[in-house]
Design goal:
The chain has about 500 residues and is of the alpha+beta class. It has two domains: about 1-95 and about 385-405 and about 415-445, Uridine Diphospho-n-acetylenolpyruvylglucosamine Reductase, domain 2 (2-Layer Sandwich); about 105-275 and about 285-375 and about 450-505, Cytochrome P450 (Cytochrome p450). Helices cover about 50% and strands about 10% of the residues. The protein has helices spanning about 25-35, 35-45, 65-75, 85-90, 100-110, 115-120, 125-135, 145-165, 170-190, 195-200, 205-230, 250-275, 290-305, 305-320, 325-345, 350-355, 365-380, 410-415, 435-440, 460-475; strands at about 1-5, 15, 50-55, 55-60, 80, 145, 385-390, 395, 400, 405-410, 475-480, 490, 495, 500-505. Strands 3-4-10-7-5 form a five-stranded mixed β-sheet. Strands 6-14-11 form a three-stranded antiparallel β-sheet. A hairpin with a 2-residue loop joins strand 8 (about 395) and strand 9. The longest helix is centred in the middle third of the chain and has 28 residues, at about 205-230. It binds protoporphyrin IX containing FE.
Length: about 500
Amino acid sequence: MLVVCCSSMEKNIKYPSGPTSILPAKILRKFLHDPINTFNNIAKKYGDISHFKLARQDVYLINNPDYIEQVLIYDHHNFKKGKRLQTAKRFLGEGLVTSEGELHDSQKRVIHPFFLPKKISSYGSIMSKYSVDVSRQWIDGSIIDIHKEMIDLTFAIICKSMMNYDMDTKEAEQFTKAFSITKEYSKRLQHPIGHVLDSIPILPKVAQSRKAGQTLENIVYNLISDRKKMIQDQDISDVNNLKSDNTDLLTKLLLTQKANETTNLENQSKNNQKNNNIKNQDTSYSALPDKQIRDHLITMLIAGHETTANALTWTFYLISQHPEIEKKITQEIESILQNQKDEDKSGTTDNQKSKKSITVKDLPKLKYTEKVLRESMRLYPPVWSIGRIVKEDYDLGDYTIPKDSAIFMSQYVMHRDSRFYEDPELFNPDRWTDEFKRHLPRFAYFPFGGGLRGCIGEPFAWQEGILIISNIMMSWTMKLVPNQRIKLDPGITLNPKKGIKMELHSRVK
Ligand code: HEM
């Protein structure tokens, strides 16, 4: 069904069908209360592309893998990031997640070397060690909130991997608490009068969020200044040859900054000597001020931990509900450990290996664990929807989407679409055969988005996820504590509303 509407004096817009008859304020209320089900119901009722209004904003929900491919891959230049991320700029700044255009391209060039396969592999030892360390601290029979544990663990891993920094417990706690206040507050900013309330600093929530923002700033700027002191005496004559292989992101950014400043000073003094006024045209010399380094760091710390923590939380939850799947994973792990033991006996391994942990070398053998993680991110995609704003009128299917409209593509909705997944609500890791993957349209499964703005951390996340699951399940079984209501809390990522409590049972008797 088509709806033709005369929304402005000159334009006759042909809208796809959608809940246009419902008052925009009513949809907005529904959306704020339960965005996932609102999208799910609209997609089920109106199909591949639907239209509605959220307050005064034209919104299109796209629920067809080919259309999503068109938007994210072929025509990405016609879109900018959605409003939610514009709001997030307030605390993320202009890092890789929020920046646009040339700034984004140049930032990606800086960050990219830290996500090349060899570098990702090098993070493996951190991932395995930290998982084993955490699981060694757990006590048989105790109750943990697995969401909190996973947030802490993935946060420690990202700090060590990107900054070679062991965040102490107090700092980590301060950071994650401040981050969670800032996240909650961002939701409030999306309320129709959120920005008005935000301008009243004496309101307790506003004051609290500003304090939290300041805490995040302090932690990150302290990190930057501490590291600056450490590299003060480092020789930077060869900074361009300092490959990302042997340094961390923070050090590399600061050494580049230092080299640029030195070159700037030298240039200045040469220019003074020659007494000419020719300006230095190379803008890279002024690149990477502390603020940009702060934005890179905060972006990496935030994008690089909460998503993976949610993926793992939901995975452990699903495993706890499916003993037959748990059994298959533990069999996979045991066979790897058995091989390690056999190799130990034949004297072919070093001491490190006999310490019993699952490492990067074991990844090719963890095929079933990978399927479990894949299936878990199908049912509970950590990023449950992607938003974009249309820059110029855009043709999609039978419609022209007007400039400035918002479009949404929801992983949560698409991943449960029965056109692509038999029995879509069933947690069935075995569905992920090579054959199934070959025939699945590219964007019927897109937990990491895709195209130019797709997730740079995807290989990091797969490796981290599989190593954490296997190293923890090597020692522990988790039983869901009864009488909990497990509820979704969809912000930018898909959290469980009140965490998930698990009772721990040691598997090493
Ligand atoms: C299971 C874990 C993860 C999931 C599901 C995930 C998902 C996503 C998605 C869907 C996007 C695209 C958003 C959009 O198109 O608007 C994205 C972007 C991004 N992710 Fe991830 N992510 C994960 C882990 C990570 C990790 C571990 C890192 C860093 C170590 C990371 C860093 C980023 C960055 C920097 C971007 C922005 C890329 C750009 O715009 O160029 N992510 N992620």
